[in-house]
Amino acid sequence: MKIIYSDKHLIHNPPFEIYDGAKEPYAEKPERIETIAKYLKEKGMTDFVSPAHFPIDNILAVHQREYVDFLEKRSAKLQKTEILYPSDFIMDTYTPIVNGTFEAAVNSVDIALTGAKLILNGEKKIYSLCRPPGHHADYKTMGGYCYFNNAAIAANYLSKHGKVAILDIDFHHGNGTQNIFHERADVFYVSIHADPHVKFPYSSGFIDERGKGEGLGFNRNYPLPLGISNQQYLEVLQKALKDVKKFNPKFLVVSAGFDTYEKDPIGGFKLTIPVYKTIGQQIANLSLPILVIQEGGYYVEDLGKIAYSLLQGLV
Predict the structure, then answer these.
(1) Phi and psi at residue 128, in whole multiples of 5°?
(2) Are 200 and 169 in contact (CB under 8 A)?
(3) Is 22 helix (H, G, I), strand (E, B) or coil?
(4) By C-alpha distance, which of 301, 304, 254, 298 is closest to 280?
(5) Which listed residue (136, 172, 173, 193) is catalytic?
(6) Whose CA is closest to 306, among 290, 291, 292, 285?
(7) pLDDT of residue 214
(8) Could you give the CA distance from residue 194 to residue 196 in angstroms, rounded to a whole number?
(9) Strand extents, DSSP E, 37-163
(10) What are phi and psi of 11, to 5 degrees?
């Protein structure tokens, strides 16, 4: 399996986030991706590919131009040691801008699009090791550590060649991805996540959100209580996969968050490392071209093991 990776994400490294009004260490740190890349190479998965650069039009097809321009300009104006929580285009206090944020976010999109292009060229499974993550980024809003919606941009790119399903298995609901495709019937979004009554993003991911207009019926949420076990999760995954199969897409994009892991510091499920292989196997049983996009996951010590387990199941 080809793995799309770049070390350019290292230039996005905010020193802190703000939680309940207090500064705390930034959870979405560069070590997340570096740990995964290192472990996969140690396990013999060495087919790493550098991303190509794609026109900005691919981002503008999903995000508002004013938002994209804002992020570029504000990021460029910051000194190397400065950090900014802007008053515009931001949904929370977990998503600061530093000097390298825009460049890293564009590179993350390039990683996703390089994977999507390889899928169009006939590859069956690709892992795009994206950072910053993307599924909380909305049309004109950054949030939840996300700036540009990598999965949505890749899905939109693929949608020109056939129907696309997005399966989001991050612990948190992908509010940005849902909103971007909320009124479209050519991209089906299904998400398994923690109950938004008790976990971020709090305002979306409820079971009655089914899409709108032409998109009605092409959005499906499976909010779950905290403490979900491996077996309980797999039972819900089967329902989500049946939804995907019914939609009959040409391509599948997987927003793969590893914050569902039992030791994740901001999660709340009880999934263990071996179950990710089963998750991968069950997804692979759909027999679709699969683009895996890295989203969350914050227990750095085991992220490589989790990623390897999932990929072993997929292949």
Answers:
(1) -95, 110
(2) no
(3) strand
(4) 254
(5) 136
(6) 292
(7) 97
(8) 6
(9) 48-49, 125-128
(10) -75, -10
- Across residues 148-162, what is the average pLDDT? 98
Domains and CATH numbers, the chain: 2-314 (3.40.800.20)
Per-residue pLDDT reduced to its tens digit, 57-77: 999 999 999 999 999 999 999
pTM over 0.90: yes
Q: Tell whether the model's pLDDT for residue 20 goes beyond 90.
A: no
**Is-catalytic flag, 136?**
yes
Q: Give me the sign of the Cα torsion angle 70, 130, 267, 290.
A: positive
Least confident of 12-21, 204-213, 279-288: 12-21
- 3-state SS class at 41: helix
Surface-to-core class of residue 178, CB atoms within 10 Å of its CB (0-12 exposed, 13-18 middle, 19+ buried) = buried
Peptide bond into 86 cis (omega under 30): no
Cβ–Cβ < 8 Å for 89, 67? yes
